[in-house]
Amino acid sequence: MNRNDKKILDFAKTITAFVVEKFSRSRMFHEMGLYTGRRGKGGDLAKNGDLFVERILKDQMPSLLKNFNFPGATVISEELGITRYKDYKNKYSLVLIIDPVDGSNNLRPQMATFPNVAFSLGIGIRYEMEKQKNFNGVKVAVIADIFNKKVYHAIKNHGAYLNDKKISASIEKNINKSIIGMSFDRTGEKFDEIYKKVKKLLRESYCQRRLGSTSLDLAMVATGQYDAHVSLSLIIEEAGGVVKMNIFNKNGFKITDNFIKYFLDMDKIENKTYRNLRFNIIAANNKIILNKIIKLLPKQEQNNF
């Protein structure tokens, strides 16, 4: 790992540690899962927890950039959308992709002792992100299991880790023995639509799992607890797995192969919102399982991967 990668990792870990401490110690944590009554830039109803974390980031980002000697940053986040700091157009500025609170529905009023709630971020250098044209430009990724004292991280080409101990994906190659993470969070027509797409996979796989946090489900693939996750990441790839992802608009058309330029140019897009975007993700332990999963999807979905 070169010196700059180490600096980016330390920057990511510092942000993560600060968020985890503030969030887990907040006296208002029992209200973090409540809706605020407005929609974020991602289109979903915003929750107190999301806004709490994003306020922390907004307050701390200028001083963190100064302390780590980065010229500026562009932050892409679920609720606030695109936020820019200092010399964000500098080719050596950072691009941060953040999900402030993943699993907020697990923050129940009665508050389970150790709810599955995650903070996650990916970081890259602007010119490298633009050159790669997609999320392959992410150099460092971190997922924090906020209440369970687990921090997953990966450095591109240097492996994936859980609490600084190296992890690896499973070696399973038989879909009939595979444990698949899968989300059925939508109801009504959405549920029926999703079920039609994955019913063959449900029959063929050994069993399904869901933690209520997509970030933590993806971490389970990286640690070998799951063999795949389907939701019609760098940590997965560095743990020896594979990821397929595409972005579509509300009409089902693929947005662009240049994901990053799309987001960095968000200020040119009407309403500066990405609420109509749909992300298709398959993360698997190896290409054999990945290809078997794709073949079990309807033809139209297969073409999306």
TrEMBL record:
Cofactor(s) needed for function: Mg(2+)
GO MF entries: inositol monophosphate 1-phosphatase activity; metal ion binding
A GO biological process held by the record: signal transduction
UniProt keyword list: Magnesium, Metal-binding
Keyword Transferase: no
SUPFAM superfamilies, per database record: Carbohydrate phosphatase
Gene3D superfamilies: 3.40.190.80, Fructose-1,6-Bisphosphatase, subunit A, domain 1
Binding site for Mg(2+): 78, 99, 102
Keyword Magnesium: yes
InterPro entries with a match to the protein in the record: Inositol_monophosphatase-like (IPR000760)
Cited PANTHER family: INOSITOL MONOPHOSPHATASE, INOSITOL-1-MONOPHOSPHATASE-RELATED
Descriptive protein name: Inositol monophosphatase family protein
Native source organism of the sequence: Candidatus Iainarchaeum sp
Higher taxonomy: Archaea, Candidatus Iainarchaeota, Candidatus Iainarchaeia, Candidatus Iainarchaeales, Candidatus Iainarchaeaceae
